[in-house]
Amino acid sequence: MVVKSELKLIKSLQQKKCRNEHGLFVVEGKKTVEEVVNSNINAYKIFAVDPSGLKEEDIQVEKVTARELSQMSSLKNPNGYLGVFYIPKPIERITSDWVLVLDGVQDPGNLGTIIRLCDWFGISDIVCSTDTVDCYNSKVLQATMGSITRINIKYMNLESFLSETKLPIYGTFMDGISVNESRLPEKGIMVMGNEGKGVSDAVAQLCTDRLAIPQFGGVTTESLNVASATAILLHEIRK
Amino acid sequence: MVVKSELKLIKSLQQKKCRNEHGLFVVEGKKTVEEVVNSNINAYKIFAVDPSGLKEEDIQVEKVTARELSQMSSLKNPNGYLGVFYIPKPIERITSDWVLVLDGVQDPGNLGTIIRLCDWFGISDIVCSTDTVDCYNSKVLQATMGSITRINIKYMNLESFLSETKLPIYGTFMDGISVNESRLPEKGIMVMGNEGKGVSDAVAQLCTDRLAIPQFGGVTTESLNVASATAILLHEIRK
């Protein structure tokens, strides 16, 4: 049985404020829980309706009822497994050749997809503006599919980060130079902007190069989804 | 006031079966409603809490209460505007140089993003297997951002469609040839598979070319999200 105060604590982790206060975050679903357990992220507690379903034998799993699980879960239909983990401290040092910078990305699904893309393309560092959606948001974690454990994500003031680097800073803009006509260097920073407003003015001024993904045919749609644009740009970086 | 039977009808359109039965689909949100109104798709009825907010003057808008709107809406927080439209008949003839084929894509957000990508890259024809998620699903429509009005989407047996074409059929597979080393022709068919299972065996046998998007660094993530992969491939087609 899970005590009431613990149910309340876990439920509260759906809010960013409470996650930061307690230094904990929640992951749901068997596969993702297992992936985080197997990473260097420390587990606080793992709950399962059927603990025997988990492959890990040396991990402490608390058996819960479906009702208890649903009281902790952020999902309409909880899927049997919920893990609470300690939020890892971001690594200060940038180790990736290319760094992805996110300037105000708001949609959790987009951030989750972008984290997964970085994992695929071997970009191990993401630097987010402080107004970017929290990467420990449950919807972000659902979309990352475990990639969160392999990417170093920092939230900080972008202007101070970008003004200190000597790397070329590529920003994506509607009126930029076609990425098809650009030769991307071996190292650099790629800035992706907010879904509606794009890159902020302050950050745009720090960009050394302005890129665009060319549209084909009539100009009808307003923009590419930021996750789709990131997919294309990371692919170009790695070609 | 909206009569009860009409509320019930509109609510029922959240189910594919009912959409097909009545030949109607629902769009929510001011911007998307306006975009569909301005397309060649015929409106059945438009509802708004504040009809004066809509730009269109020559369109019949029924004023509804917030309560009535929430009874029709599929959203937790309905956003003031809801349009019911007639499902357009797909155009038989393929007009696009490249055709995108979807073999069992299940996630509505993925299909919505893919439709939007086709719009951006000027691919006007999508052919879906009959087990692909319905493009008039509300979550698909939310993700398409109005692109649905510009793309011709057909659901049919893929084997019969693919066995009749003379175009090269590119399938995407984990073990395919790197898209970076392939020269894509001016016309062709690009097949994207299901999120978990990829391209089905029957369809794979009809593919003339097997493509892959190369991963970078350690092989850690299982796969690219299908919408991200589509973004990269359509970009390559248009380069």
From TrEMBL, chains A, B:
GO biological process, one term: methylation
Record key words, sorted: Methyltransferase, Transferase
Keyword Transferase among record annotations: yes
GO molecular function terms listed in the Swiss-Prot or TrEMBL record: RNA binding; RNA methyltransferase activity
Pfam families named among the record's database cross-references: MRM3-like_sub_bind (PF22435), SpoU_methylase (PF00588)
SUPFAM superfamilies: alpha/beta knot, L30e-like
UniProt xrefs under InterPro entries: Alpha/beta_knot_MTases, MRM3-like_sub_bind, Ribosomal_eL30-like_sf, rRNA_Methyltransferase, SpoU_MeTrfase, SpoU_subst-bd, tRNA_m1G_MTases_N
Domain RNA 2-O ribose methyltransferase substrate binding: 26-91
GO cellular component, one term: cytoplasm
Recorded family membership: Belongs to the class IV-like SAM-binding methyltransferase superfamily. RNA methyltransferase TrmH family.
Listed name of the protein: RNA methyltransferase, TrmH family
Organism this protein belongs to: Maribacter ulvicola
